[in-house]
Amino acid sequence: MTAVTACRSCGGTDLQRFLDLGTTPLPDALVDPGADLSQEERFPLGVAFCPSCSLVQLTEEVSAEKMFVDNYHYYSSFSDHLLKHSREHALGLLRSRGLGPDSLVVEVASNDGYLLRNFVEAGVPVLGVDPSPGPAAAAVEAGVPTLREFFGIDLARRLVTEGKRADVIIANNVMAHVPDLNGFVAGMKHLLADDGLITVENPYVRDLVDHCEFDTIYHEHFCYFSCTAVDALARRHGLWLNDVEYFPDLHGGTLRWHLGHHDRRTDTVRAYLREEAERGLTELSAYADFADRVRRVCTDLATLIRERRAAGRTVAAYGAAAKGAMLLNHAGLGTDLVEYVVDRNPHKQGKLMPGTHQPVRPPEVLLEEQPDDVLLLAWNFRDEILAQQAEYIARGGRFIVPVPSPEVVP
Predict the structure, then answer these.
(1) Which of 28, 93, 265, 275 sits at 20 to 30 Å (Cα–Cα) from 101?
(2) What is the DSSP letter of 358?
(3) 244 and 129, same structural domain?
(4) CATH assignment at residue 102
(5) Is pLDDT larger for residue 1 or for residue 283?
(6) Coil, helix or strand at residue 352
(7) HEC profile of 212-249
(8) pLDDT of residue 77
(9) Nearest residue to 174 (alpha-carbon basis) of 234, 227, 131
(10) To the nearest 10°, the Cα dihedral for 47, 51, 56, 61?
(11) Are 9 and 233 in contact (CB under 8 A)?
(12) What's the distance, CA 230 to chain centroid?
């Protein structure tokens, strides 16, 4: 564990801490049932604001090699909503960029090939880059060429030496996971063709604060981005933030930033930068009461579940992703309150949740056992999961949605 004393983006040393989430396990490190639970590692988790460039970031760092290895079981292809979003993204790029057999699309953190396979289908050469062995192997098996490596300036230089230049670079839900933020952006800059396009997606820090999405704060997410912070980071490396798209129903509110070598800034970018300044996202004050709201949500959720358990109701949970692990741990929801967690990903089934140790089971058990309540840990896919579980709901089952404040639906 390494303490962070300088901003990951601008190097400023006046980091202002505004949230302390205590010590938690690595949220993607699912536990084998036979493991010695007393040996499970826990790490401090704090968050700070940089007044120089507005980047929100963790105050301690766990090495990426400890997190994105054989304990990383996230596979993008198990979300229908994400697959649809990604296909629309790919088809839009194929049209707008005129991509063909002489083009190259590179995706950083390409996971199991869920997005790049749309370009492969269209006959466009691709290259995925992902350090996680399981997802990378799944991508190769699906016909998506993939390098099992971390992306940065060194890899970008090697690819350029091999004669590769990317017409499009896609970096979805990865820039927050990168400890060497400047090396990552410098690598994209170096690899991008002169008239190429970089698209970067990450959850929006504005929505994180507004909707109290504290469970998206965990060790794998080193940074939390505003447009102001992305603009400053891009400019430092000779890139321009030229456009912004907003997806309110993806991961609790996601932005897609368009970066390029040349200044083609839209009015949309100017409007976002102006709004962030007006709303105070460039000042510590915007984040000052966040810690109090986090404590209130955790307390209210635990109280609600205890009351329902005391009334004789059974409670399970849906979604063995990192945010689910964080919520269970922060709210103190052990197996006495939430009996088990279901997830569609077979790579997670049969394991235990980090820290709280609920067994992970397939979603079919919800109809087999019909628990009275299901805590929706994967609230970012709320509509998709509620639709999938229509029969469970029709039989009288209820979902507990934890954020922005606990509610029982339908």
Answers:
(1) 265
(2) P
(3) yes
(4) 3.40.50.150
(5) 283
(6) strand
(7) CCHHHCCCCCCEEECHHHHHHHHHHCCCEEEEEEEECC
(8) 54
(9) 131
(10) -60
(11) yes
(12) 16
Residue-wise burial string across 246-274, b where 16 or more C-beta atoms lie within 10 A, e elsewhere: eeeebbbbbbbbbbbbeeebeeebeebbe
Question: Based on the domain organization, do 175 and 202 belong to the same domain?
Answer: yes
What tokens does 23 get? 């010590």
Q: Are residues 21 and 130 in the same domain?
A: no
Other beta carbons within 10 Å of 32: 10
pLDDT tens digit sequence for 27-86: 989 999 989 988 899 999 999 999 999 999 999 998 766 665 554 445 555 577 888 999
On whether the CB atoms of residues 221 and 58 are closer than 8 A, the answer is yes
The residue written with tokens 């699912």 in the block is 30
Give the mean model confidence (pLDDT) for residues 322-347.
95
- Looking at the fold, whether 210 and 340 belong to one and the same domain comes out as no
Choose one of 249, 264, 279: the last residue of a domain.
264
Query: 172: domain range?
Result: 76-264
Locate 327 and state its tokens: 């919520």
Structure tokens at 147: 């390098």
Using alpha carbons, list the distances in angstroms from residue 49 to 8, 72, 141, 307, 347: 11, 28, 42, 37, 36
Q: What is the pLDDT of residues 295-323, one digit of tens each?
A: 999 999 999 999 999 999 999 999 999 99
d(CA 133, CA 112): 10
Residues 209-266 pLDDT 10s: 999 999 999 999 999 999 999 999 999 999 999 999 999 988 889 999 999 999 999 9
80 and 56 within one domain: no
271, part of any domain: no
Tell whether 294 and 228 lie within a shared domain.
Answer: no
Whether residue 244 is found in the same domain as residue 354: no
Cα angle value 131/76/55 (rounded, 5°): 70
305-to-299, 333, 336, 373, 406 alpha-carbon distances in Å: 10, 9, 10, 9, 10
257 with 323, same domain: the answer is no
Residue 223 lies in a domain: yes
